[in-house]
Amino acid sequence: MNKLSDFYQDYPSFFIALAIYILLALFWNYSRRRIKSPRKYETVPNLQPLPLNYESIDYIKAFISWLFLYLKVFTVRPGLYYVGELDGNAPLLVTCNSFLTVFLLARRIADRNVRLLVIDTNGINVWCSAGEGKFSAEEIIDKARRCDLIKDARKTEMILPKLCLSGVKLSDLRKEGISPVIGPMYAADLPRYLDKGQFEDKVNDHVTFGLQSRIFTALPTAVQFLYWFAGIYILTFWTLDSFIILIAGALAFTYSIAFPFLPGKQFAVKGISMGVMASVLAIAHYMYHGFNLEIVLIWILFVFATSIFIGLSFTGNSPLSNYDKVRKETAMFLPVVVLLYLLIIPVKIFL
What we know:
4-stranded mixed beta sheet, 13 helices
C-alpha cells in the first residue's frame, strides 16, 4: 500500500486520467447503443442524371479519404450519375456513397458511357456496408424508384458489385422489376467486362488480398492507430511515454504488410506472433542499452496487447474475415488485451 500511495502522490494525474478514460468509454458505448443516427443524406433532388466530373480539389479529397480510410471523411450524395455522355441505355452500375469508392470507380470507367446509381450506405464501402445491412435490396429499390429507374413495362438491368451480395437479396430486386447482374469483384476488371456488351454473372470471381491491397490498407491502418494512441496519450495527461504512438503505428503498418506471413490462422494469433517478434527486438535493444526490468515488462505487455488489438481490428480492414468467427475471436481475445494493458499499472507501481 505504501508503494501505491507513493505512486499516487508522484502521479496523481495518472489516476485522474484513468477515471476520466473509463467514464468516457462507458459514455461512448452507452451512446452508440441508445442513440439511433438519423438519415443524413437525401437523394439528389433531380430525377435527371448528373454528370460525375472531378476537379483538382477532388483528388485532394480522395487522398484524404484514403489516408483516413476508416473515418468516412467525405461522402457522395446518393442519386443517379453518369460518366461520359448521357445515355439512357448505358450500363447501370450500383455502388455505395463512399467518396473514395465512387472516385476510384469513376476513374476506371472514365472513357465509357456508364450510369451510376449511388445508394446511401452512410459513407461506408461496399463490402463493409453490405455486412452491416446498409447496402441492401431495400436501399437499392428506394433509390431506383426515386430516380425513376424502375419501369413497369420492362426489367431494369443493374450491375451489382459482387462484394455486396452478403447484404442484398436478389429475389427482392427481381420482384420489383430489377434484373440484377453480379459484376466483377474488382473495379480494375470493369472496363474489360463492360466492353463485352452482354453482361454475365461473375460468380467465379475470388477475393485476393495481395501485396498491392495490403499496401493500400497499410498506411491508413497505421494512421488509424496513430490517432487512437495519440488520444490515449492526451487523455492520460502525458503520463505515458509519447513513444507509444509511434510504436502502435509501426506495429499496425507491419501487421498489414506481413499479414499472410505471420504464423497462425486467426487474426489475433497472428498479432501474438508479431508481438513475440517485437518483444524479442525490444529485449535485445534494452539488453544492449542497459537492462531495466520495469521498462522491459511494460514494453512487452504493451507490445503484446497492442499487437493482439491490431489483429482484432484488422478483421474489418481486410476482405478475409468471417463475421461469426470474428465475433468469437473478439470475445476470446479482447479480455486478454484489456488484462495485458491493466497489468502495466501494477508493474509501474510496484517495480
